[in-house]
Structures are given as C-alpha cells and as structure tokens.
Specification:
The complex is a heterodimer. Chain A is of the alpha/beta class. Helices cover 44% and strands 19% of the residues of chain A. Chain A is elongated and about 90 Å long. In chain B, a hairpin with a 6-residue loop joins β1 and β2. Chain B is 75% helix and 1% strand. By secondary structure, chain B is mainly α. Chain B has helices at 3-14, 17-35, 41-48, 57-82, 91-102, 106-131, 135-140, 144-162, 166-181, 206-225, 238-251, 253-268, 274-288, 300-324, 330-341, 350-353, 355-383, 391-408, 413-431, 436-459, 466-469, 471-498, and strands spanning 183-184, 191-192. A two-stranded antiparallel ribbon of chain B has the order 1-2. Classes of the chains: A alpha/beta, B mainly alpha. Chains A and B meet through α2, β2, α3, α7 and α8 of A and α3, α7, α15 and α20 of B.
Amino acid sequence: MRRKSWQVFLVGGLALMLMASAINTHEAYAENYPEKDILWIIPLRAGGGYDTYSRRIAPVMSKYLPNKVNVGAKNITGAGGVTGVSTVFKSKPDGYTIGLAAYPGLAVASMTMDIGFDPNQLTPLAQIAVSEQALFVSSKSKLKSLDDLKKTKGVRLGTTSRGASMFSFSLVASKTLGIDSELVTGYGGTSDIIPAIMRGDVDGAVLNLTQLKKYIESGDLKPLFTFTSKRHELTPDVPCVSELGVPEATVVQDYKMLFAPPGLPKDRLDILKKALVDSFNDKELLEWSKKSSMPLELKMDAEMKAEIDKMTKVYGQYKELLK
Amino acid sequence: MGLFEAMTVALFKAFELQNLLYVSLGTIIGLVFGCLPGLSSVVGLSLLLPLTFGMDPMSGMFLYAGVMGANPFGGSISAILINTPGTAVNVATCFDGYPMTQRGEAGRALGISATASGLGAVFGLVILILLIPVVRQTIMLFGPPEFLMFILFGLSSIVVASRGNMIKGLLGGGLGMLVACVGRSPITGAIRFSRDIQYFWDGIELIPFVIGMFALSEVIHLTVTGKTKIATRKIEGKISGVWEGVKDVFRYKLCFFRSSAIGTLIGIIPGIGGATANFIAYTVAMQTSRHPEKFGTGTPEGVVAAESANNAKEGGSLLPTVGFGIPGSVEMAVLLGAFILHGLVPGPLLIKENLDIVWAIIWGLVISNVLASTFGLLAAKILVRVSFIEVSIIIPVVAAISLTGAYANRGSIIDMLMAVIFGFFSYFMRRNGFPVITLVIGFVLGKLAEVSFFQSLMVSRGDYFVFFKRPLPLTLFLLLLVVLVLPFIRQKGRQKESS
C-alpha cells in the first residue's frame, strides 16, 4: 500500500514537471525565436551543388542565429526537386523549416505541370548563389564560336531529360541564340556529359562554368561563350552572350533560392535574414567559397523578386516547348 | 609529389593513432549502416560531413573511407541472414546467401562474404592504382553502345535464371522492366503510368522495391508456412563452416577473379550504379558456371560472385572520381561533395595536386576492409545464431527493421506502403512459381537499357548499326551470342553422353 502511494506520487510529480516545462516552452516560443533546431531542406540529392552549398552554409548560419540553434540540412528529393520545395510549402510557417529551390527549374515545373502549389506564395528569404552557365565543347572540337554553331545543322547538345533545369537551359539557349540543335537527353547530369563531350558522342552542352574550372585548366573542355552580361573573371578571353548581341540569353543561369513557407511572420523572417547576411560576411565561409570555387551571391527582397519575375517571364515564352 | 612518395606519406598518416581511430570509427559506422536496410553509406557520409569541417582533410578522408569500405560487407550480413539486402549493392547476395542460411550454412556464407569482400576490395584497388596513369583513356572507352551491351549481358541472364520455367521467367523479367518504366521517361520526359500522382514521377525507388521483394515476402512466407526456424537443419561444427566459406573463395578462384574484374569495370563506368555491378557479375558467373542450374538455390559460387564484385566496384568507381572528378557511384558523388567542403576542387587535376589525399582514401579502404572482414570472420559464429532463433521472434523484428529501412531511405511513408505492396506481390509470384530473380533483374537493368539504347541512336543520328561499328560493343555482342547459345550446346552434349 505504502509502495503504491509512493508510485502515484512519483508519476504525478513527473507529470506536473512535464506540464510545467510545456507551459514554460510555450511562453518562450512566442518571444524567444528561435529556440529549437531549424530544418534546411535540400531538394536535390546528396553530393550535388545544392547539397554542398547547403551543408556548408547551414552550420555557419546557426552561428549567427540568436540562441545559436542548429540549422540541420536534410535531403528531401523527388520529382526533380519539386518534392522538397513542396515539403517547405506545406510546413508550418513558424520559421523552423526553410529550404532551397532551383530557379528557373521550379518556375518551369509549375508552368508545365500540376505541382500542387504556387511557388509565388512561398516566403522568399534570399538568393544564395548563381551558377553561371557556358556552352562547352571539347577542346578538340571544330566548333570554335557561336557562328560555327549557327552554321551547323543539328548540333547535338547533351542534357538531362525534359523537366530538369539543364534541359530548359539547352532549349532556351538554342532558341534565343538561333542554334539548330538536337538535344541528346537521358544523361544523369554534368558528370555524365563531360566524358560524352570528350568522346564526341555529343557536340557540346550547356554546363556550369565555375564547376568546370578544372576541366578548362586541364585542357579537356573549352567554353565557347558564357551566358552572362559581362565577361566572366574566370575566362577573360571568352565572350559573353551580351557582347554577342543576345542579352536575352542571360537568363540561362541557375539560381539557388532559399524560401520559407507562405505566411512566415515578419519578425521571424527578419531574424533569419539577419543571420544570413551575417553568415555571408563570415570570413571562413568566404575563404572556403574562393578556395573551392563555389561562388556566393546574396540577394534579398526586391532584388531577389526581380530575378524571379524575369525568369518567370522569359521561360513563360517557351512554355509550350518546355512541356 | 611522386606516386610512391605520396603513397608512403599517406601510409604513415594512416597508422597515426588518431587516423587509425577514424578509420575504425568509420568501419563501425559502415558496418552498422550497411547492416540496416535503408541506411546506406550515402546517409552515413552525409551525416558525417558537418562533423569533419574542423578536421584536416586527410583525417576526414580516413573516416569516409572507413565507412565506404565496410559498408558492402555490412549489407551482406542482413542479406545472408534475413534475406534483406542491407544496401543496394547486396541484392544479388540474397539470391544464394539466404538459401544457404536456410540450409543451415549461414556460417559458410558469411565466411565467403567476409573473404570475398576483403579480397575483392583489394583487387579493385590494385586495378585502380594500375589504371591511374591512363584514367582519361579508360573513361573514354565507354559510350552508350558499350553501356547497352553490358546491360544486355545482364539481361540475358534472365534466360538462365528462368530455369525450366521459361515462360514464367520471361514474363517476370518483362514485368520487372515495366515496373522500371514507371515515372518520367529519362529520354522524352513523358510521365508514364503515374497520372497526376507526384510520388511516381521519379519512378519506383530501388530500396523499398527490394525490401518488399525479398524481406517482406519472406516474412509473409514464414508466417504462412509456420516454420519454426529459418534454417531447416543444423550443420555440425558451425565454426568450421566459416572456414569452409574462406576456402570456397579459393575453390572458386576463377569465379572470384572474373567477378572482381567485372565489378571493377562496371565501377569505372560512370552512371551505372553499384547495384548493377554485382548483378552483372552474378549473372556472368551464372552463365559461365559449370552448374548454372544451382544458382539461386544456395550455391557458394553465387555468393563469391556477388560479394567480390560489390567490393571490387569501390576501387573501380574511385578511378573516375579521383582521377577525373566524375563520380563512379552515388557514394562517390557524396565523396566529391566532401572534397569541395574541405576546399579541394575535384576534377582532372586532383590527382596531380592532391595525390596524398587519393592515397589516404586507398589506404583507408584497405584498412577498413581488413577490419570489416576480420570482424566478419570472428563474429560469424555469433551472427549465425540468428538463423536458429524462433521464427515467432524473427518475424516481427525483420518486419520492423525492413519497414523502418524502407522509410529511412528517404523519409517517405509512401515508400513503406510500396514495400508492403511489393512484399505481397512477390509472395504471390513465388507461390505461383514465378522466379523472383528475373523480375528484379528486369527492374534494375530495364531503365539503363532504355537510356543507353535511345542515347546510342540519338548520338549516331538514328543509325541502328552503331552497336556494331566499334570493336568493344561488337565483341561484347558476339560474346553475348556465345553465352546464350553455349548452354544449349552443352545440354545437347550432355544428352549425347547420357544416351
């Protein structure tokens, strides 16, 4: 009997303590954001560019957040990146879930398929990086300039399948520049296309410039022109599309955009933004960015929105072709 | 830094206490993650990445190599004992490993796996070192037509695996290829068999598929038959069983070398996953064996083939990864990510600029494999007891582990549901005499066959003769014909002998 009352006392005490702690956290929840770990969703697979950026930036961000809570990066993949963004979209707008999205990939997906949500309703946090693209050919190729490409019938461009960013890039690049191209689809990604170009299976491809820096240095591949408005510092001898008279083609770039769910309260949004701004001034992160040739480019608010709108507009023109 | 200088520097580094600890830690993680279905070395490496930021890159590499080296052997433990491939590269291990366990020879199977894994890995690494100087030429050997011929080699084994039940076997293979068609077409981008269900856009995921096909269908089978133990009879002197397994690898040395070579070769080809490597090795072993009819019923040869190939593959896939910055497998893609996080830029120059790092990975893999295999040989005696536990205890445990694995792979509840569906599907197939192997072969190789076939045509602008214009695909094609015709000739010969 005595033992039993002792047990009741213990259980009751524990329950009280739990309740007390619950009330306590609830109060703190409103005032003291953030106080638990933040989830950073990576919509693409482990080992890729999105993954690498996320895994490098997330821990730096946690350093600059109030209470120094962890920012944990996690891959939620599927449907070419749509699943991960959709998970962000459906999460509670409490500032504990954020995620990367690929632009124009996401815009194209929402234009050409029923993805179940409107990306424009997401709360934009920041653009963290832009991957500049270039048209690459083998260094042994006979194609030496845009004019050569235009003169050739059926230039074989290697790419991933319809729906992925690279496919949209190859298509929009061909249309804007007036290249008569045949897209060779089915490649898994950049790393499958590099040997395909060198073997001559395909004539060229639209690929990420900085990522291929070492292949230019080793003399395996050669960029014919970059999809930028100015010559790129990495390749000062290579013309950009603007100087070739096709400034429209500068939309062929991969934007890594960070979003929160729709309806995130402004105070929490501001806390996250400030942590991002501080992170992008972090000395170690900047050093890493330079050393690994993984460029960072922070844009927020109106600037970020302008980029999104521009892409939505230009890629919207090719909606039917991209379907 | 010269080749040998870098080699010795890395070797000395490897035997520093701290780095030995990292390799050992990695080995333990690799074994555990390998053993548990759904938790692969990809997950393990991704989890470790943030912890290694502060480390010097070389120590980080020892940790990663530990995980990668031990992972395939870890996966074979669950494949052999409970018919659940721990990782995607252990699927073919189930084919003969589990039937051996059912016969009471789990110790022998584990002995084979430990030995073949360790030796296979070393084989792959030796080839890697030999090929480093010609990495560029090696990678450029393989285009879509070559791919297709390799895949067809694998697919042709459906015929062998059908064993006297040709119609059902071929139906199974075709069905597997159809399952592989679900989702976005890799060529045209059209979405097939999925309507508006977003889940299916990426196709059927391999892990829940194999968990359902093997583990859950076995759970259903055990429940329905009411057997009390997995192993039907106890073999006397279980410890000698482990040594029998070690000897088996040397008994089937031709099979070992052939499978290791195939594993390494498939590993080198970027874009073909590790699961394919041990499949093709297994199927080639089946076709070239003197007793192809025994494959799938628990022949040691089958385990030798599958396990030597999946470890040799590591060395192979390291070649394009470190030599050219092109990942030879999913794990290698994560490893490349790790390079970048450590401020190393992968690409064709890495091998010149950071040769010591490359050697650190090689030594790390060697040490990790030695540790994992030693562990396997020592622990086999204890592990074997799983097959003698009451089935009433095994069933809930295996069901729980498999379902968790199906979920953990990418955190999807629907994956769990799919695993259950495939479990029942596979059970009914087996009950009606369909060989499950052919369906799995069709599924794994179907999509790759489609991609390489259409790419060959696109690359050659629609020329159907592209497959016969280069020497390598032509040779492979002729070999394929020989392999398909040979069994018939042999059978005729045998009939003559007996008459």
